[in-house]
Amino acid sequence: MKRPILLSTSLATLAVLLLADALPAEASPRAFVTNERDHTMSVVDMETLKVIDTIKTGRRPRGIIASPDGKLIYVCASDDNRVEVYDAATLKLVKTLRSGPDPELFVLHPSGNPLYIANEDDNMVTVVNVENNDLIAEIPVGVEPEGMGISPDGKYMVNTSETTNMAHVVDTSNNEIIENILVDSRPRIAEFTKDGKQLWVSAEVGGTVAVIDPSNWQIIKKIGFKIPGVADDAIQPVGVRITKDGSKAFVALGPANRVAVVNAKTLEVEDYLLVGQRVWQLGFTPDEKFLLSTNGNSNDISVIDVESQKVTKSLTVGRAPWGVVVVP
Amino acid sequence: MTRMASAVGATLFAMICASVPAGAQDGAPPTSAQAPLATKPAKTIGPEQTFLIGVVRQIPEPPPWIAPLQMPPEDLGIAGAELGIRDNLTSGRFLKLDYKLSNEIVPTDGDPLPAVERLIEAGNRFILLDVPPDALVKIADAYKDRDIIFINVGATDDRLRQQDCRANVFHIAPSRSMLTDALAQFLVTKRWQNWFLMVGRTDNDKLYAEAVRRSAKKFGGKIVAEKTWDYGPDARATAQSEVPRGTQVGEYDMLIVADELGEFGDILPYNTWLPRPIAGTQGLMALSWHPTMENWGASQLQSRFFKQSKRLMQPLDFQMWQGVFAVGSASLKTRNSDPAKVKAQMLSPEYDLPVFKGVAATFRDWDQQLRQPILLTHATNTVTLSPQAGFLHQSSPLDTLGFDRPESRCKLK
Question: DSSP per residue over A149-189, as a string?
C-alpha cells in the first residue's frame, strides 16, 4: 500500500494483457453475486442461468456495483476494509481501493467517479477517487451508515444511517450535508427514480418504504406492506429497484421471503412474489427483462420475469448471498 | 461514599467530531483532506436542546468467590451509558440536540437516594437506575410529583412490573419472568420438559425459582424434582464428591439452576450424577445481551463498544446503552427535553428502540416494560432468541414473554 500508483499501474497493464489475450468472442450478460459467508463472488451466465465461476474475494463481501460501462465490478470486502475492483470480462482482480473501515454499501457517481462508501462501524461516508485511490472526503453521518443512493444528475448523494434512522442528503459539489430526513427504523437502501423526481428509502424494522420528493426533501408517502399469514414484524423491506420508465418498483421484504411489486405511479402495492429465504438485495438485467433477488438464508438467487411478474427460476450460489449486479 | 460525577457529553462530542481513523487505512498516505474535516460539525452553533441524563449504580453484593473469567469490569454498565451518549450525539447533532451524562456510584451498603437527589439538583431529568428494588420504589415515590423519568436498567424483580409498578419508571432490564419464559419456550420446543430445579440460598434465588415455576406452568414444563443448594457458599474443592450425591433425584431432562449471585451454578456442569445439561442463571443463560450476539446489526454495536471500552459488552452495558438511547430515540422526534414530552413519545405507537435482535422493541403501556427478544446463550455461543417460533400472540409474539396485559396487576400512578 506504500506504492499504490505503481501497484495499480502494473496491475492495469497486466489486466490489459489478459484482456487482449482472453477476450471471449461474444459474452452474454452476467450476474455477479457476493456471498457474505463464503468470501466469494458467484458469476452467473444470464443466457443459460448457470453459475459459470466462483471467485475468491476479500473477507465478507457485501455491497456490489458495476461501473457505468459495465466493465468493472466493485465489491465491498467488509472485513478486509477495502474495495476490490474486478474486470467483468476476465474476472480478475484489477486493483483494490481504500474504503475506510467496514465498508458495506457504496455508490458510484453517474460519471463513474468518485465512489461514495458507507463505513458502518465509523459513522462516516468515505469519498474516494477510483482513478488514483485518493481520499477526497470523509463525511460524518449518523450511527451505522448503510444505504447509498445518488441522483441521476449526480448532484445529491443520499446515505441512510440505520440506528439514527435518517436519510442524510449530501451536496456532491462540496460534500456537505444539506438535509436530514427522519424515516422509520433501520433505513437500509436509498434509491432515486431514473427521472430524479423521487427518492425511495426502505426501513427494515419500521416495515415501510418512504417515498421522498427531492425538490423539498419531504416524505410524499410511506408505503406499508401486508401479507396474509406473515407476521408484520417479519416484513422487513431492504432492497429497492425501480424500472427506468418509472412504472414499477420492487421491494425485497427480508424474512417475509417475498418481493413486493409496487405501482410506482400510484405508490400502491400490487403483488407479492414468493422467493427464497431472507431476501436481501435486488438487481435488474440491463434490458430490465429480469430481476434477480439474493436470498441470504436459502443460499440461492431467484429470477423474476419483470413483465409477467413471475418467479421463473432459482439457482444455488454461495453461502449467504448478499448483493447482486448484472452487466451486459 | 464514592462520588463519580462526570459530565462527559461535551468532551465526547468534541472527540467524535475529531475522530479521524488515522490507522484505519493500513498505511495509506495521510491526506490534507483530514484537517478541515475534523472541524466540520463545529458549524452547528450551540445546541437548541440539551438532554441531561444521570446514572445511579449501586454496587451489588459480591459473591463469595468470582470465577476468573467473570470478574466484573470497573465501568460495568457505565461504559454502555457512555456509548449511548456518543450514539445520541452522532444522531442528535443533525438536529442541534446535545446530551450529557453524569454518573453516581453508590457502595453496596450505601443509600442511593442522596445520589439521585444530587443528580436532580444538577438538572438531570432522565435518571437510569441500577439499584435494589426497595430503593427503586423509594426513589420513584420521593419524586412522583416532579417531572423526572426513571429508567430501571438493573432490577429484574417482577413486583416492580406488577403490584409495585410506578408511573414514573420505565423498565429496560428484562423481568425474571421474561427471562424464565424465554428459557421455558425453548426447552418446551426441544421437548426437554422435565426439569430438576436447584435453588440457591438467597432471596433473589427464591424469586428466580418462583419465576421458573410460573414459566413451567405457563408453557407446560414439569418440575420433577427440586432442591435447595446447601453445600455452603464455596464448594469448589468438594464439588466432585458432593454434587453427584446432591443430584441423585431420578430421571430429568434439564437441571435448572437459580443462583443469581453465582455461588455454585458454574460448578454443577459435569459434576451431576446423570449426564444432563444445565440452564437458568448458569449453563444456558437467558440474557438481554451477550458478546457472542452478532446478527441483525449486533456486531456493529459490539464493535463500537469494543472500540470505545476495549472490552466485551455485558448485559448491564447493553441495558444502560438502551436506557440512554431510549431517551435519544425519543428526542429525535420531540426535539424537546421536557420529560413529559419524551415520556409521551416513548409510549407512542410510532416509537421503537433499536435492540439489534431483528424486531423493533417497544414499551408495554400497562407496566412500561420494554418488550424485546431474549437471548439464550452459553459461555461461547448464542444458541437462540426467544420468543420461539410457534408461540403465537394476538398482538405481539414478544408479549408471550413476561406479564401480558390480562395478567398485569400494575396500576400506573
Answer: EE-TTSSEEEEEETTTTEEEEEETTTTEEEEEEE-SSSEEE
Q: Which residues contact A41 (CB under 8 A, 6 or more apart)?
A: A32, A33, A34, A35, A54, A55, A57, A61, A64, A73, A75, A86
For residue B113, what are the CA distances in angstroms to A84, B104, B131, B147, B358? 57, 11, 10, 17, 37
Question: Of B51, B83, B123, B124, which is closest to residue B332 (Cα–Cα)?
Answer: B51
With 0.90 as the threshold, say if the pTM is over it: no
User: Do residue B27 and residue A2 have CB atoms under 8 angstroms apart?
Assistant: yes
Contact between chains at A136 and B33 (C-beta distance less than 8 A)? yes
Q: What is the pLDDT of residues B264-275, one digit of tens each?
A: 999 999 999 999
Identity (one letter) of the amino acid at A195? D
Name the residue among B37, B40, B354 with its Cβ closest to that of A163. B354
State ipTM.
0.80
Q: Nearest CA to CA, how far is A30 from chain B (Å)?
A: 30
Task: Report phi then psi at B324, rounded to 5.
Answer: -70, -40
Give the gap in angstroms from C-alpha A192 to the nearest C-alpha of chain B.
23
Opening angle at CA B360, ends A296 and A228, nearest 5: 65
Residue of B nearest to A138 (CA): B37
Distance of CA B411 to the CA centre of its chain: 24
Residue of A62, A96, A205, A236 to mutate for B, most B C-beta atoms under 10 A: A205
Q: Which residues of A touch B25 (CB under 8 A)?
A: 1, 98, 100, 135
Candidates B207, B219, B197; CA nearest to B279 is: B197
Put simply, whether B228 touches A (Cβ < 8 Å) is no
pLDDT in tens, B101-143: 999 999 999 999 999 999 999 999 999 999 999 999 999 999 9
User: Cα–Cα distance between A176 and B183 in angstroms, integer?
Assistant: 49
Of the candidates B142, B129, B158, B143, which has an alpha carbon nearest to the alpha carbon of residue B58?
A: B129
Q: Give 10-residue mean pLDDT values along chain A (328 residues).
A: 47 49 64 97 96 96 96 95 96 95 93 95 93 95 96 97 95 96 95 97 96 97 95 92 97 97 97 96 96 97 96 96 97
CB-based contact A122 B24, cutoff 8 Å: yes
Q: How far is A193 from chain B (nearest CA, A)?
A: 26
Distance, CA of A158 to CA of A149 (rounded, Å): 5
Least Cα distance to A119 among A85, A151, A143, A84 occurs for A143
How far is B164 from B254, CA to CA, in rounded Å? 33
Q: Which residues of chain B have pLDDT under 50?
A: 1-44
Give chain B's length.
413
Distance of alpha carbon A136 from its chain centroid, rounded?
22
Q: Which residues of B touch A205 (CB under 8 A)?
A: 352, 354, 359-360
Residue B382 and residue B298: Cα distance in Å, rounded? Answer: 12
| One-letter amino acid for residue A290 of the chain | F
Residue A121: which of B304, B333, B354 has the nearest Cβ? B304
